[in-house]
UniProtKB/TrEMBL annotation:
The keyword Methyltransferase applies. GO terms for biological process: methylation. SUPFAM superfamilies: S-adenosyl-L-methionine-dependent methyltransferases (SSF53335). GO terms for cellular component: mitochondrion. GO terms for molecular function: 3-demethylubiquinol 3-O-methyltransferase activity; polyprenyldihydroxybenzoate methyltransferase activity. InterPro entries: SAM-dependent_MTases_sf (IPR029063), UbiG_MeTrfase (IPR010233). This is 3-demethylubiquinol 3-O-methyltransferase. It comes from Leptosia nina.
């Protein structure tokens, strides 16, 4: 995880440092004193006396001067419990903050968070927190809260980054751009998936055949890795943003985008982040979102797809490619990893695969219409993908976000 940047928002610190009645249980901070009693009564239920004896606890944002990311680098794997109570809504970089908190935890340690929710109907948060608590009841200092910084409980997905998956992909750094090596399937898949995406987004045949059919189309590639597909889309004119939680692969993708003039003139923007974080800033923004060969590496698939869709404009399209969850795909993956050496050994975990039907159900639940699914097969010795009538090995799926 990158520790660049800071979680401190100077404006928030200035507002908070003006508070002088922290220890007056009837004053401006009485809501925090009340919250203490509530958490204490929960702890009491489990153990009669001193329920937290011998546990090392870090309270992040306990008062002025505590920078969580500094603590994270000085005290990795130290604490049993990390608490961030009424803090998240004041930090500048929520992802960095939460991941830094987690870095201080021992394996098996727990993080507890309390914070104001950013409800779907933002006026409810606004009414309760700003109008009622700040203006009428004067429980909070006026102007202390900025509802634009509130987060939903989904934010905990930022803690859901699967380090094991990211480490597995980090190992691929040196082989990603070898077109006949362990990433051969991704390179040759470009010959099928780039035209598939063009056909899905462009209806006019004369534009499809032009050199830059995707000109001006804003496309997000989620899980872009070293940039094989992002570059393929940039070459045909798309304005590509590629995101990936693996810093090493994002660095590689950035570096590689200087090599070919066609890409260097229209470089994708690469960011090391998760879709959960990206979707907070880029709602209803992209013409297309691509998750190609990624869904089988994701921990929380419902949330992942939901957030992908959030970033799409109404009428925008999502494209997914992945191995199906069938016995035949399990055998093919085994052969690919161990015999044909066309994928990194152990990179796939069959238990995490999904069927096109399961993906379609999630997409439809999230206001999308599935337009088509197609079967794909890879022929190792000739390194070619072919469209086929059956979907039991690999599949490609296209869906539209409804207006
Ligand atoms: C097989 S590579 C595919 C790369 C690229 N999409 C392509 O097809 O050329 C899978 C990528 O998914 C990324 N990944 C793993 N877990 C992810 C997650 N939860 N969210 C987004 N990307 C993830 C990995 O870091 C890796 O770069």
């Amino acid at each position: 995880m990158s520790n660049k940047g800071t979680t401190v928002d100077d404006g928030e610190i200035a507002k908070l440092s003006e508070i002088i009645d922290w220890w007056d249980p009837t004053g401006g901070k009485k809501i925090l004193h009340g919250l203490n009693k509530f958490s204490f009564s929960l702890a009491q239920k489990e153990n009669a006396s001193k329920p937290l004896a011998n546990l090392k606890i870090l309270d992040v944002g306990c008062g002025p001067g505590l920078l969580s990311e500094e603590y994270a680098s000085k005290y990795p794997n130290k604490y049993d419990i990390v608490i961030a109570s009424e803090v998240v809504e004041h930090v500048a970089n929520v992802e960095l903050f939460l991941n830094s908190c987690v870095d201080t935890l021992k394996p098996g340690g727990k993080i507890f968070i309390t914070t104001a929710n950013r409800t779907r109907l933002s006026f409810i948060s606004h009414f309760i927190v700003i109008f009622l608590f700040e203006e009428v009841l004067r429980i909070f200092k006026k102007g202390l809260h900025d509802i634009k910084k509130f987060v939903t409980p989904d934010v905990t997905a930022m803690l859901n980054k699967n380090e094991e998956e990211i480490n597995k992909h980090k190992m691929l750094k040196d082989v990603v751009w070898d077109p006949h090596g362990r990433c051969v399937t991704l390179h040759s898949l470009n010959h099928r998936r780039v035209p598939y995406i063009i056909n899905g987004l462009i209806s006019k045949p004369e534009i499809r055949k032009s050199p830059h059919p995707l000109a001006d189309k804003k496309i997000l590639e989620v899980g872009c890795g070293g940039g094989i597909l992002s570059e393929g889309l940039a070459k045909v004119g798309a304005v590509v943003t590629g995101i990936d939680p693996c810093q090493e692969l994002v660095d590689l993708a950035k570096e590689h985008s200087n090599i070919y003039p066609k890409v260097a003139e229209n470089k994708p923007t690469y960011l090391c982040t998760t879709i959960e974080v990206h979707a907070q800033k880029y709602r209803d923004y992209y013409d297309a979102v691509i998750a190609s060969e990624v869904i089988m590496h994701v921990a929380n698939k419902d949330l992942f797809l939901k957030q992908c869709i959030e970033t799409l404009k109404p009428g925008g399209k999502i494209f997914i490619t992945a191995p199906n969850k069938t016995i035949t795909s399990k055998i093919e993956i085994f052969m690919l990893e161990n015999v044909f050496k066309g994928a990194a050994k152990g990179i796939h975990d069959y238990e995490k695969f999904m069927t096109p039907h399961e993906i379609s159900r999630i997409l439809e639940k999230n206001n999308c219409t599935v337009n088509n699914t197609h079967g794909l097969v890879f022929y190792p010795y000739v390194e070619i993908w072919q469209w086929v009538f059956f979907q039991s090995l690999w599949f490609a799926l296209e869906a539209t976000k409804n207006d």
